[in-house]
Amino acid sequence: MHECLRLAEASFEEGETPVGALVTFEDRVVGRGRNQIERLNDPTAHAEMIAVTAAAATLERPRLEGCRLYVTLEPCAMCAGAALLARVDEIYFGAFDPKFGAVGSLYNIVEEGKYNHRPRVYSGLLEDESRRLLRDFFSKIRDEKRLR
Hints:
- By secondary structure, the chain is α/β, with parallel strands linked by helices.
- It is 41% helix and 20% strand.
- The protein contains 5 helices and 5 strands; from the N terminus they run αββααβαββα.
């Protein structure tokens, strides 16, 4: 999770919403991602999507059985769906996302039991640090808007 925070901080510095993610397999990192929505002009360029894509490329397989997804912010519906489709075994996240979270806040896609795969979910890892980074980012954005 500390590495996820470093990735999120890099996103912050680039003006992206500070979210970092990584995928591990057998205790080694096989995929890293950070939000790059603005940079790539791509609404799907979420940290989790980039990390899952990188992991699949590294492992040279579309299914990520045996993998863990770590992310600083609760995955949205798109990212939770990607974790389901990739068959990630476990999802670990920091801060809850009351506006878009789909792993407990607004929805709980991965635990509703309608799919043939159900990753285990662990929440609240470095939650304060993750939340603080997001709060600082949005405060900075609001301050910049006021100065215009």
